[in-house]
Amino acid sequence: MKGKRDIDYKPWKRIVAVIVVVAALLSITAWVVKMGKARVDVQRMFDQTPMLYTVECSAQTIVTHKGAEAMKWVGDRDLIVPVKATVKVGFRLSDINDVRVEGRTVSLTLPDPVVEIQNPEVVYDEAITKVGFFRRNFSQEELSDITAEGLRQMEERMDSYQLIEPAQQQAQRIIAAMLRQKGYDVLFRAAPSASVIEGRYDVITK
Asked: Cα–Cα distance between 126 and 82 in angstroms, integer?
């Protein structure tokens, strides 16, 4: 009887085991497909918002131009003029390429920020000029050069404005809110600190 039971039941045990394994594989496959689809959906959301601006401020620098000393005998030709611009810090969400989805949690790393200097202008009303009677006034070309010099100074001083860290924090809050609307929590992987990232970001003038 013992041998009969072995003959009768062992095949069924094998069949049940195979069914369990297949079911487990199908479940894992379905989970992987689901997580892959979720990742694609999240990535598509970021691709549809290519640039997320999180900080905006006004910046000003003072450009000084002094006439050549050799021409002082003819008269002065000096200029002190403010150059103002709008500075924006944003993040290219389409650069986020390490999205991971585990259950209802999305993990990612913020990309490096992009700093844009927009609408630069020379504030003529606040300019101080000292042009001698026998010296010509400043040309439009020279004023354009002064604007370019002001932008260069702003770029050099960008780190001193301390915009990167608040921009990162605001970006995390906005991205978290975007993902919550889709039913996800978010985990931000450690991004470089503001002190590390200073000078590494792109500065664009528009």
From this structure: 7
Least confident of 59-68, 75-84, 120-129, 190-199: 190-199
Q: Which residues of 32-45 are buried (b: 16+ CB within 10 A; e: fewer)?
A: eeeeeebeeebbeb
Residue 63 to residue 123: CA distance in whole angstroms: 11
Quick: pLDDT tens for 118-176: 888 888 888 777 666 667 777 778 878 888 888 888 888 877 778 888 999 999 999 99
Residues 108, 189: Cα–Cα separation, whole Å: 6
CB 204 within 8 A of CB 154: no
Q: Global pTM? A: 0.67
Residue whose structure tokens are 């500065």: 203
* Phi, psi (deg, nearest 5) at residue 75: 145, 160
- Cα–Cα nearest to 175, from 102, 96, 104, 89: 96
Of the candidates 184, 166, 185, which has an alpha carbon nearest to the alpha carbon of residue 90?
Answer: 166
Which residues make beta-bridge pairs with 187? 107
Rounded CA-CA distance 79/71 in Å is 15
Return d(Cα 138, Cα 79) in angstroms, integer: 9
